[in-house]
Every structure is written in C-alpha cells, then in structure tokens.
C-alpha cells in the first residue's frame, strides 16, 4: 500500500510541472499513469490479444495449406507450448526479414525471414522470440508503452482499467510499438540463451545460432532494428 501511494505521489508530482493543465485533467492523467504503472498480468494479456488481432487483420496471414505455414508447423511441432505457456504461430506473407512475439505467446514470422533461413536457423530465431515471452521482456515492453501513452492523455476515468479505455487507434499504435520493441542488450543475451536451449532440445548445435545471427547482421529495418548487434552476438556464441 505504501509503495502504491509513493508511486501515485511521484506520478502526480511529475504532472504538476505541465503548464496549462487544469486540476481535473491532472487528476485524470495521474490516474491513467498510476493504472499503467500497476497494470496486472491479466490486463497485459488482454492488451496482447487485442494487439494480435489488429496485427493479424493488417497483415496477409498465410493460410493453413500454404507452404510457409506447413514449414513453420513442422519446425515448431515440439513447441506448441513451453513451460506451461501456449504458443500460437502464424506466418505473415511479407518480404520483410522480421519476427516478433507478444506477451500472450503469439509469435509471428515473416515469409521474408523464412526465405533467408534454414530450418535450424529459423528454430533458433523462434526460440529467441520464445525467450522474450518466457523471460517477461514482451510484458515489460507492453507496460512501458502503456506508461508512454498514459503520459500523453488523461485517458481512463478513475477506477476503470486503462486497457478498457483504449481506442482502436491507440491499440494499433501500441501493437506497432510491440512489433518494433527495442530490447536491451541483457534481454537479447537472455533470449539468445533461450534460442540455444531450444536448439539443443531439438538435437541441433550452436552453429545454427551463429549462422542465423550472421545472416541478421547486415543492418536495415524489421528484425535488424529491433534486435541490434546480431554480429556481435554471433561472435559471442561462437566463442562460447
């Protein structure tokens, strides 16, 4: 309780410097910030599902009989769930080299990435994304994005869930930010370790992780920008 009061006080204090904001606006904005800072796991999951639905609608999803879907299903046949978390895979028919994971275990792989990777290399990348889910990195990114949004608006009325108050455009913005989340170096290394673990569990060695990261080391958008330093991470794994 003391911790919540301190957080609330800090958030309200940070708003007091905003010029031109009336008292009611300050209270509503503080309420939104407090809700975003203390959002529970169930609300994060709700936000993830809403984000997943928007992203799936905005992209061309490979059908059940598509060759990309068949290949992805084969690669992930032993990974329909992991440590009690159900995982959901789909392919976006998009030439961009990219993949991402949402906090609810939704993993989306772009056909451009699949074209670039062998099956074991793709398994490492998927394992890396699973690591972001299992280690709570995706959840942390969702909370950070909610805080950023709450800071810009006096969104939810006091006592209501900030997630329930989001408009379609706001959910779309949050979904886009989750796809392009910038992870810290420590988060990337933790997720690389997960990818290596999953490779080992499927009887592959670390060379596939190294070659995958080498292929991703060329710079550019998509996976390159949201998962930086691929070449350095490849060097690290190679020396292990």
From TrEMBL:
Origin superkingdom: Bacteria
UniProt signal peptide: 1-19
Family: Belongs to the peptidase M48 family.
Name of the protein in question: M48 family metalloprotease
Keyword terms of this UniProt record: Hydrolase, Metal-binding, Metalloprotease, Protease, Signal, Zinc
Cofactor: Zn(2+)
Gene Ontology MF term list: metallopeptidase activity
Lineage, highest ranks first: Bacteria, Pseudomonadati, Pseudomonadota, Betaproteobacteria, Burkholderiales
InterPro entries for this protein: Mito/Outer_Membr_Metalloprot, Peptidase_M48
Organism name: Advenella mandrilli
PANTHER family: METALLOENDOPEPTIDASE OMA1, METALLOPROTEASE YCAL
Cofactor note: Binds 1 zinc ion per subunit.
Limits of the Peptidase M48 domain: 91-239
């Amino acid at each position: 309780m003391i911790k919540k009061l301190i957080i609330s006080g800090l958030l309200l204090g940070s708003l007091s410097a905003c010029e031109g904001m009336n008292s009611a606006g300050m209270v509503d904005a503080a309420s939104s910030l407090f809700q975003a800072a203390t959002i529970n796991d169930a609300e994060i999951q709700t936000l993830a599902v809403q984000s997943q639905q928007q992203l799936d609608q905005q992209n061309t999803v490979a059908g059940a009989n598509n060759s990309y879907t068949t290949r992805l299903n084969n690669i992930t046949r032993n990974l329909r769930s992991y440590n009690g978390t159900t995982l959901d895979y789909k392919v976006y028919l998009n030439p961009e080299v990219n993949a991402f994971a949402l906090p609810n275990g939704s993993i989306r792989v772009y056909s451009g990435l699949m074209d670039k990777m062998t099956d074991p290399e793709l398994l490492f990348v998927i394992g890396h994304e699973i690591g972001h889910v299992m280690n709570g990195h995706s959840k942390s990114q969702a909370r950070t994005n909610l805080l950023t949004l709450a800071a810009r608006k006096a969104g939810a009325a006091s006592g209501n869930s900030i997630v329930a108050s989001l408009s379609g455009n706001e959910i779309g913005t949050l979904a886009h930010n989750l796809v392009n989340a910038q992870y810290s170096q420590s988060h990337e290394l933790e997720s690389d370790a997960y990818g290596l673990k999953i490779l080992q569990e499927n009887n592959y060695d670390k060379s596939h992780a190294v070659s995958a990261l080498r292929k991703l080391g060329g710079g550019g958008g998509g996976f390159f920008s949201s998962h930086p330093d691929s070449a350095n991470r490849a060097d690290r794994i190679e020396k292990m």
